[in-house]
Amino acid sequence: MVITFDKEMLSLALPPAIAVFVPVVLLAGLALLFQAWSRPLLNASLHEENEANVVAKESDFPADWWVGSNLFELEKRAIFSKRWLYLSHRSRFSKAGDYHSYEVADIPIFLILGKDGVVRAFHNVCRHRAYAVTRKECGSSLVLRCRYHGWSFNTYGQLVKAPHFDHVPGFDKSQNDLFAIHTTTTNSGFILVNLDASTIAPPLETWPLDSLASRHGLGRRSSWVGGQTIEGQFNWKMCLRPRKFLGGEAWEHAPPKRSYMLLLSRLFNKIPNYPEDIIVFPFTTIHTLKRTTYWYSLSFIPISEKRTSIRFDLHCTRDSSSPNHLIILEGLIGLVNKSSRALEAEYQSYTDDSKSATAVSAFDTSTENTQKEILGLLQAHAKLEKQQGTEVFPAMRQPRQNARYEQAEQLCKELDCQDALNRQSLAW
């Protein structure tokens, strides 16, 4: 049965004032229901329209940020040829003639301790035929000899012997010394070099290193415990995350000292109860170990856009004869290898061009700022090259062009021919 109400029945059932108000309320209710039903449809329509009109913000970084070969060539010119680079610590050199060889972005160099106690850096090429002067990663010798024609150099980089050239008129040994590189050793023993070929060294700010050394007692008296160089298949820029490469767990398993010994050590040596990490731009990080006198450096020296040489060195600010040294060193070696493999796996995901540039935004703020600093240097150097209309190589040495040089060059060619004939006569 359907019950219906007409106007007359409603007027009989309700007082006149209320009867007039009820239809108005019913109409308002229907309007509200219609609005509620239509709102989701309207919102969905607006959302779809907004999505259609949204333009994704492009990354500031080029798509090949992690994999570009041309980008890596620009990095060599804009960064590694112009910026101060941390390479080693004074504690790695104990006697005159001690040397360590490196290759930074295809540029071979070496550090050597002179008889005057000063560490100097030179390009690892003989001025005669650009052959390597040092062939080992490290060694010790007061005289470095090029095996091509026997040119010999002392610890100051000076040419002291040049067979077959003594009779060449006007030949000046002092004009054929090794190419020196700007080198500085801070008061705390940190050794940095700058490959810029200009005669005046670019300015260097050492206060971050000095401040770290002051807080943790790092200095020239630190002893080198050990180290290693390994190669990783990833881009060097991915490593610039101070506590991320080895992770926060790095030294939780270091053997603790006896409580009273630890207390005395803290009282007299002022050992901080916290770890600290800094980036020595562009490719080195330095770390101190919590509640210990140990610290270590990690240098991520680029080999190519997809290969990086990882050099790590463990140091101790006190006596290096502690039995804990070997345990801590082995732990560091294991962690570096583990982290390198993890980074290689991560890098594989960046080799896709669609992910390369956007991956930077996934880093923390500090790391992203470091990447932006690198980008700024690249953009500035690219602008310079555009203005000059050519590529600019700050580390390049200008070749000599004069009559005496041409005469010496002719003698070199004659010696080369003689060597070739000798080799042919022995090739039976």
Please provide a written account of the structure.
By secondary structure, the chain is α+β, with helices and mostly antiparallel strands. Among the domains are: 84-204 and 392-422, Rieske Iron-sulfur Protein; 216-351, Naphthalene 1,2-dioxygenase Alpha Subunit, Chain A, domain 1 (Alpha-Beta Complex). 36% of the residues lie in helices and 20% in strands. The chain contains nine helices and 15 strands. It has helices at 7-13, 16-53, 69-80, 207-216, 259-269, 324-350, 353-356, 365-388, 403-425, and strands at 85-89, 98-104, 107-113, 119-123, 138-140, 144-145, 152-153, 159-161, 180-185, 190-194, 223-232, 276-280, 284-288, 294-304, 307-316. A seven-stranded antiparallel sheet has the order 1-10-9-4-3-2-5, with no helix packed on it. The longest helix is centred in the first third of the chain and has 38 residues, at 16-53. The radius of gyration is 35 Å and the shape is globular. Mean pLDDT is 80; it is low at 1-14, 44-56, 248-268 and 419-428.
Features:
disordered N terminus, five-stranded antiparallel beta sheet, seven-stranded antiparallel beta sheet, single chain, 36% helix, alpha+beta, 9 helices, Naphthalene 1,2-dioxygenase Alpha Subunit, Chain A, domain 1, globular, 428 residues, 15 strands, Rieske Iron-sulfur Protein, disordered C terminus
Brief description of this entry?
The protein has 428 residues and is α+β, with helices and mostly antiparallel strands. It has helices at residues 7-13, 16-53, 69-80, 207-216, 259-269, 324-350, 353-356, 365-388, 403-425; strands at residues 85-89, 98-104, 107-113, 119-123, 138-140, 144-145, 152-153, 159-161, 180-185, 190-194, 223-232, 276-280, 284-288, 294-304, 307-316. A hairpin with a 2-residue loop joins strand 2 (98-104) and strand 3 (107-113).
